[in-house]
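Ticket #4471: complex job returned nothing on first submit. Input attached below:
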Amino acid sequence: MIKDFLSKHGDYRSDRSFRELTTIKMGGEIAHYVEPYNIDDLRQIVAFLKANHVPFKTIGNGSNLICGSSRFEGVVISLRHFDNYEINNSTVYVEAGVLAPYFVQQAVKAGLKGLEFAGGIPGTIGGLIYMNAGAYKKEMADIVREVLVLKDDEIVRMQKDELKFRYRYSLFQEHPRWFILAAYLDLEPGNAEESRTIVEDRAKRRRESQPIDMPSAGSCFRNPEGDFAWKLIDGIGYRGHRLGGVEVSTKHSNFLVNTGEGKGEDYLALALDIQEKVKEKYDIKLIMEAEKFNC
Ligand SMILES: Cc1cc2nc3c(=O)[nH]c(=O)nc-3n(C[C@H](O)[C@H](O)[C@H](O)COP(=O)(O)OP(=O)(O)OC[C@H]3O[C@@H](n4cnc5c(N)ncnc54)[C@H](O)[C@@H]3O)c2cc1C
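Support reply: We reran it on our side without changes. The output follows.
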């Protein structure tokens, strides 16, 4: 019955796993996976799932998710078909399923500046807003003006000051059943060549300093006020430390990478061990930035 309903309203599959949907390549099978065709289909799917008490989880590009090995007996919803954007002067409309690195290229081509920081963040626009993702002292809160949200069966426009943005945090983290559908961003007229150079320089810096050739979920921990998580992890001697199939990257010690057969459970056990050692040595509580799900 679930399968029939979902198939009517989107591209449906029953053979997907978090292992293939996340950048860290870990996690169990998924009972139902759907990519709704449009907002109306999404609205009907969500209403149906709520009425039938079926658990569901939205996924963007899976670049911040650590999933457990057990099968998820619910529905994973991807807004992959929400992939339109419009650039009119410096006002930009972009839907949640658009991949940030792709969109940065389009903004740069259009001669707009302000989004260069996101050129190397491998998430969707929806995921970047949810996380208030950022880099190089810039974050989504600096450019988001308004977000279109499916909130409790209603589509509403929410202004930036309603969204409680702070470091790697937004109001959406308090409401996991809301959907970010699209956003209006404020960018500035710039110089395409200069923006392109900034994006390329930063991509080069990432290649030099981050293990982007290994499956990961980016930074494991938030940087504590006035400090860096990688320094604290180095301080406890954990660079290169391994637990099961998960390793503290030798290239960047705030990245925990999957060496092949790593499991979400290994990742979390290693993260917990790091938290305890850092607390013991520095009396600092590291907070996870990567999100755990179904474990
Ligand atoms: C190599 C690498 C480098 C990275 N560098 C950075 C960096 O520099 N800065 C940074 O901040 N992060 C970084 N990250 C982490 C990650 O890319 C970001 O957190 C990103 O914002 C996650 O987006 P996503 O689409 O992959 O979201 P997912 O991981 O798929 O989901 C994350 C959360 O967002 C929710 N979500 C996703 N889309 C929606 C939506 N449309 N509506 C409602 N909820 C939604 C999901 O339910 C989930 O709770 C990096 C990750 C990797 C692998």
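The chain has a mean pLDDT of 97. Closing as resolved unless it happens again.
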